[in-house]
Every structure is written in C-alpha cells, then in structure tokens.
Amino acid sequence: VVDLATTEATQLGDSSVDTVHLLVGMLREGSGVAGSVLASHNIDAEAVLKSCKSLSTDSDVTLSEVESRCLFEAKWLKHNYVGTEHLILAVCSFSDCRAAKVLADIGTPSVEVCRDVLQLLGHQDSLDQWLADQPGTS
Fold this sequence. Notes:
Blueprint: H1 2-12, H2 19-29, H3 33-40, H4 45-52, H5 63-76, H6 84-93, H7 98-105, H8 110-120, H9 127-133
C-alpha cells in the first residue's frame, strides 16, 4: 500500500505522501480488508482523487503519526501483525486528516468505515470502545 501511495503521489506531482495517497493505495491494492470495506461503500480511487482536489491546501497528519497509530490499532486488536485493516483504522481515526475529509465529502464518514472494518474482524460490538480508546480523542 505504501508503494502504491508513493507511486500515486509521484504521478500527481506531490512532493510527499499523505493520507489521501494512502487511501488511494488501499483502494488500488484492493484485496485487503481496507480495500474490501471501501469497495463495499462503492468508493473508488477516481472519486477520492476528484474529491481531494478541493483540499489541496489543507494540512495533514504526518506519516509518522499514521504509522504510530497503525501500531496502536494492531495492539488494540491484539494482532501480532500490521495489515490494511490497521492502516485504514489508523487513517480514519484522525478525524481531521485529508483522507477522513475526502471520505465524508464522498458520502461515507470515516466512522462508518471503521465500524465495518471492526465488524469484518469480528469486533462488531466494539465500535464505542474503539472510539473511546483512540489516543488524543478523550
């Protein structure tokens, strides 16, 4: 996903990878949990890219912050690996990041994506606890 996001950023002429590029990378990868959940909401890379054009001057969280949150998500779910499910939860947990804004703009609030990811992982009753446990949100 990171390689796909980096390629996307390069093709768009962007000097760095942000959460929208990661979102597009998850969509282009397609076979992981994140890609499956996003596809179930009829979200595609082209819609994300079209929507993000209006956010061109918005700042975003750093990739270091996303990586840290991704590790937090894996630990919270008691997983000993990091996959696209952790990455999408991490990205969507930053309610003010560019990717979350794009998701809301195209009609799928990030909390819905998180709910569906948790449900797919067998944690369907954990959304409220997951929301409460997110760093920096209490």
